[in-house]
Amino acid sequence: MRLVIARCSVTYEGRLTAYLPSAIRLLMVKADGCVAVHADGGAYKPLNWMNAPNHLEESDGSWVVTNTKGERLEIEIEEVLHEFDHSMGLDPGLQKDGVEAHLQVLLAERPEEIEAGLRLIRREYPTDIGPVDLLCEDGEGNTVAVEIKRNGGIDGVEQLARYVERLDRDPRLQPVRGIFVAQSITPQAKTLAESRAVGCVEVDYDALRGIESSVPTLF
Amino acid sequence: MRLVIARCSVTYEGRLTAYLPSAIRLLMVKADGCVAVHADGGAYKPLNWMNAPNHLEESDGSWVVTNTKGERLEIEIEEVLHEFDHSMGLDPGLQKDGVEAHLQVLLAERPEEIEAGLRLIRREYPTDIGPVDLLCEDGEGNTVAVEIKRNGGIDGVEQLARYVERLDRDPRLQPVRGIFVAQSITPQAKTLAESRAVGCVEVDYDALRGIESSVPTLF
DNA sequence: AGGTGTATGTCGCAT
DNA sequence: ATGCGACGTACACCT
Fold it and tell me: What total of structural domains would you count in chain A?
């Protein structure tokens, strides 16, 4: 990784056009060739960047980075204040645990936490517009499609409504109803769910996790 | 901005749990206090991070970053290979051109580029579920709601369909139809648009821009 | 503070 | 490659 602190101005032309007036910034060039221009603030997102693969042409006082999509990043370097290069080797990568996928596993094991009498038919049940998180059967033998989100918004309700509409055309499944399950559901989403005849259930991830504390975690 | 290259392992506990085994990485601490852990590859996104505001507690061989939301980033530092600090001053910030907002302005000036005879009633016409990009009237005096996207996907069609449904309840406006406008529209979105009786128009941003070349650009 | 919509989103997975 | 959904999305804007 190459790190350069320099006074520079930057122009990007590609998916949009953007211009960065002269100031002191960090230029970061990673081993894969990607280039990022960082200011000294504003979270982790750089002001400007060009992902790999690209081509970096370095001439006196200017870097020009281009890629095959016709995007172009030009950095005019007025003054280099510090420069450093260090090889790092491959990164072993990140191990994650605990997002929507885990919530889905927990609820697949205990569908009765969603609604009494609910029984799992299949997880990730495929339809021609994408997989339904859980396909279940209720106490009366009717099909129930379950969409699981961490944060329940309007989008999730629409997504579920599309699945239900699709599944309900299958004579082996119909009638099909939907239940929208999330840790929290916005009032707007609840309103939309009502008008789409979709049920809403809020679940407590930590409590569910507590129930199945016997299962070993990732690490 | 403080830059440290170190062999370290990292644990994050917060919205999820994540673990990063020992390797050489770049630790970046910006003036606003945000911390990022970068590997030497993989676009601009850090492996792990903690945005400002936070609290960084630095002890021998370990950094603990916490925030008020109960998130916690712990960096175990085994070996520091390089360290550097440089003040940069405030950044003048980025000037952008060519995002959805600009496309909306261009089309508001020339609605006939969307459909012959189309006339603008209002930009950002408010409804109780959000603003419609353009509200227009067609050659026959019927109301047309226009949703503009750079990249047209299913979501945009759904969004427009919601607006049309809402607007069509207003006796002063009905009947209302929708036109989905984007630089490119996915086949799935076109199919969905058809089943929602929504029109689709693909526009060329550069061409539109050329038409109004008299208007001065941002820079 | 919370909800909604945008993003040069990025990233991963399936087609 | 492209489409599609998830993301510790971040971020601006508005209520």
Answer: 2
- Whether B91 sits inside 8 A of A32 (CB atoms) is no
Per-residue pLDDT reduced to its tens digit, A159-206: 899 889 889 988 999 899 999 999 888 888 898 899 888 999 998 877
The verdict on A154 and A202 lying in the same domain is: yes
Condensed to tens digits (0 to 9), the pLDDT of residues B97-106 reads 767 788 888 8
Query: What three-state secondary structure class fits B97?
Result: strand
Q: For residues B91 and A39, is the Cβ–Cβ distance under 8 A?
A: yes
Instruction: For residue A159, say whether its CB is under 7 Å from any atom of strand D.
Output: yes
Are A107 and A182 contacting, i.e. CB atoms less than 8 angstroms apart? Answer: no
Q: Which domain does A136 fall in, by range?
A: 100-211
Cβ–Cβ below 8 Å for B91 and A1: no
Asked if B18 CB < 7 A from strand D, the reply is yes
Residue B91 lies in a domain: no
A1 touches chain B (CB under 8 A): yes
B60 touching A (Cβ < 8 Å): no
Within this chain, do residues B114 and B200 fall inside the same structural domain, yes or no?
yes
Alpha carbon B147 to its chain's center: 16
- In this structure, is residue B117 part of a structural domain? yes
Q: Is A203 on the interface with B (CB under 8 A)?
A: no
Q: Return the number of other C-beta atoms located less than 10 Å from residue A199's C-beta.
A: 16
B81 and B107 housed in the same domain: no
A3-27 pLDDT, tens digit each: 999 999 999 998 888 999 999 999 9
